[in-house]
Specification:
alpha+beta; Small Protein B, Chain: A; seven-stranded antiparallel sheet; globular
Length: 153
């Protein structure tokens, strides 16, 4: 996702540790005015959030956006469900994958792209403990190899 005019607001780094990412989509976020202002300040948390399809619409649940400090009565509930904006075919495909294969829709990151808030949504499969250990061992081996190559040069 390294592109021009993209500012990353928040990332869910734990998601790549806990899940295998099978497919990703870019979705728009339907937000209120003070939520946008708060997110521009980086006051967003993607920990323990997920997405689900309800009545043909896609919602992200558990995404925490801190209330804007200078907003008064216009501040909304920090944990309210936020609607995601995607094409109907993409929503249908994601819903079918979740229902048939037992997969989950997990937000990976929130970013500002050309003045609009976007969310990177991933179709994920949960990792077992041995998969996580395997990934850590591979990462450590790669780090050791790079360290030894750096010492030789």
């Amino acid at each position: 996702m390294p592109q021009k005019n993209v500012k990353i607001i928040a990332q869910n780094r734990r998601a790549r540790h806990d899940y295998f990412v099978l497919d990703t989509w870019e979705a728009g976020l339907e937000l209120k005015g003070t939520e946008v202002k708060s997110m521009r300040l980086g006051k967003c948390n993607l920990k323990d959030c997920y997405a689900m399809v309800r009545d043909g619409e896609l919602f992200v649940l558990g995404m925490h956006i801190s209330p804007y400090e200078h907003g008064s009565f216009s501040n909304t509930d920090p944990l309210r469900p936020k609607r995601l904006l995607m094409h109907k075919q993409e929503i249908r495909r994601a819903q079918q994958s979740v229902m048939q294969q037992g997969l989950a829709l997990i937000p990976l990151s929130v970013y500002l792209k050309n003045g609009r808030m976007k969310l990177e949504l991933a179709l994920c499969k949960g990792k077992k403990l041995y998969d996580k250990r395997d990934d850590m061992a591979k990462r450590d081996a790669k780090r050791d190899i790079e360290r030894s190559i750096k010492e030789r040069t």
